[in-house]
Amino acid sequence: VCVCVSAIDCVVGSWGPWSSCTSPCGVGSTERSRQVSVPPRNGGMPCPDLKQRRGCFGNNAICSTAKEVAKILPDSFKRNFKDPWRRPHMLMKEEKASYCVHLRVKQASAACKLKLWSNQLVRERLVCAECQSDAMSKSDRCGGDGIKSTRTFWAAASVPGCHGSWVRESSSEGCRCPPSSVLFV
């Protein structure tokens, strides 16, 4: 008596959607997958690839923000930070509430060691940067105030050659940074 067992080939479903690009700005990758509907049995054809990956170029709305370089000064400037050129439109501007951004330094150039205040900008140090009314652009934010979990760049306005990168961790409205923090300018 012959017991015939027929081979069953693998059957897969259709491809799912492509994932979003792993990089919101610049080169990254995206992938999609599919599921096995019927697994192969009795020597049937094995399953084809279940995942596909391809390159992508993220061009999110935040990308222009990612290119901004924050210009910073020590908070000792905030005691009476006034516009040095006394531009008339600056005097008319209403005070807007300041906000704080906490950023983790990822890189700092050697020149930062030259001044006491910029010497604190060292790798992995968490820095509080305050955005005051005087420094805000038309959009009520300070240029270069960072993007959550994305590396952005800064330059110390009063220390030539002192610059680096940082990653924004959090921000809070209507707050003041503690002494020996930095200010956006």
Automatic annotation (TrEMBL):
Keywords: Disulfide bond, Glycoprotein, Signal. The keyword Cytoplasm does not apply. Residues 92-178 form the SBSPON-like C-terminal domain. It holds the Pfam family TSP1_spondin. Residues 10-60 form the Spondin-like TSP1 domain. It comes from the Eukaryota. This is Somatomedin-B and thrombospondin type-1 domain-containing protein-like. The lineage of its organism: Eukaryota, Metazoa, Chordata, Craniata, Vertebrata.
